[in-house]
Amino acid sequence: MHAARLWNRLAIASLLALIFLCLAWELWWAPLRPGGSWLALKALPLLAPLFGLLRSRRYTHQWVTLLALAYFTEGIVRAVSESGRSAALAGVETVLALVLFASAVLYVRASAKVSPCDTAG
């Protein structure tokens, strides 16, 4: 179960980093409008899985992969369509979303219960 704990912690860390990135990006670092943008609200859906990940809930890890894909898609689109700091931040968002996706999938695999059929040779 040691591997599952590692993947869970990585999922939590990448989720928190993604929340921070979304807020900082749209409020201070490279907002669409000077003084901040309402696009910072895109961080709100990321709060939904936070407590489930903190409690190591397998089901939360399963569905957070779908949420991660939305942020991955936004990162790819904005990395290609924007320039400068926004494009760089979009690249970081893409990487964080991929890390969240992969660590959640690996947690689900590591925490799966072994069925009697799996042990039969």
List keywords for this structure.
single chain, 121 residues, 5 helices
State the helical fraction: over 70%
DSSP helical segment count: 5
Q: How does the overall form come out from the CA principal axes? A: elongated
Helix-strand sequence: HHHHH
Mean pLDDT: 92
Structural class from helices and strands? mainly alpha
- Please provide the count of β strands: 0
- From the N-terminal CA to the C-terminal CA, the straight-line distance is 23 Å
Described by strand count, sense and barrel closure, the largest sheet is:
none
Gyration radius, rounded = 17 Å
Q: Which regions contain 5 or more consecutive residues with pLDDT less than 50? A: none
Strand content: under 5%
Summed up, the domain count is: 1
Description:
- The structure is a single chain.
- With 121 residues, the chain is mainly α.
- The protein starts with a helix and ends with a helix.
- The protein has one domain (2-32, 45-112).
- The protein has helices spanning 2-29, 50-54, 58-81, 85-110, 116-119.
- It is built from 5 helices and no strands.
- Helices cover 72% and strands 0% of the residues.
- Helix 1 runs antiparallel to helix 4 and helix 3 runs antiparallel to helix 4 (85-110).
